Model the fold of this input.
Amino acid sequence: FKYHWTILSLVDLIALTAVVYFSMVRFIPLRSWKAWLVLPYAIWVLIATSLNAYIVLNN
Done:
């Protein structure tokens, strides 16, 4: 927050979104209910990514 590096945080959030997505995909063959447990976190990361992208594009 101190340096206002919004582009770097957007890149970080995109990478985090990809990691969460791939972990959900890997959980499906093991136990599908584990993938559903990660779904609220995946939704929250997508919301955070979209908010950060909005800030980057409009500043």
